[in-house]
Amino acid sequence: MLRLLELQRDQVVGGTIIVILLPLVALTTQSASYVFTNFDVAPELTGISSKPYAVILSFLVSQYSLYGYDAAAHLTEETRGADKNGPIAILTSIGIISVFGWAYILALTFSIQDFSYLYDPTNETAGAFVPAPILYDAFHGRYHSSTGAIILLCIIWGSFFFGGLSITTSAARVVYALSRDQGVPFSSVWRKIHPKHKVPSNAVWLCAAICILLGLPILKVNVVFVAITSICTIGWVGGYAVPIFARMVMPEKNFKAGPFYLGSFSRPICLVAFLWICYTCSVFLLPTYYPISWNTFNYAPVALSAGLGLIMLWWVLSARKWFKGPVRNIETDHSGKV
What we know:
With 338 residues, the protein is mainly α. It has helices spanning 2-25, 32-37, 43-46, 51-58, 60-65, 68-74, 82-110, 115-118, 131-143, 147-180, 187-190, 201-215, 223-249, 266-283, 300-322.
């Protein structure tokens, strides 16, 4: 848990450097009216010319980045006072991500020198990674050198790497929890705790191996990345939809509030959260490139249907006969105290 916090600290420091340094280096900066009112699409790259459709797809970026609070949620049982500190950690994570994400986007958009060049298929990244040309234009325009841009890109790539570590940590804790409840094959292997480091090392290696295997096709086919991120995010936010919906329909007399309780705001917030989850899960199934072909098709609906089908088949044929639900590892008295 402490190591994860150190990684998040490094990401915040790196993001702060980019936010402050980039607008100072750029020879010219865009006006506030351009940043907040100008709307551009890149149909030559994505095939999407509809602005409303582009707005709908643009919300997906935030769903990728908000994965950070999920790691905080899965690590709460490794902290003291998890019933109160867990929700605080989640809200703090969302707040930090929102502030720094907004500042990062503003720093990039204010520093744009030539918008048409960003999505040009002939530029340094073939129009696929927009921040790189912005950084290059800023440093090359002032210093006639791309060294500073490369350094800042390394910071961004480092953030991607640390974000991957955070997600892997979160996924390993999910595997550990499911194997502890005997909910996955070979549970006895994945729930083992490393005697020295006190972490589920086998679960960590399993998640790392799966990530590597799933990532290899991305080197050849770009749509694989879209499908993987869509499926993972749908599964992640969809998992939160279940308890949120249960809270909405549960009679108030049957609900026992914990130390962190939203009071009368609980049901309205649950409704907004549930509708947002339904919206994002639907959007992740939409095509992101046009015209639709075998190379641009969003395979998330196909892969998601196949995955859910296999899980349901496994449940019907085997798992329902032996899976009894979560295994309790603590005892409570009649008052609910541990």
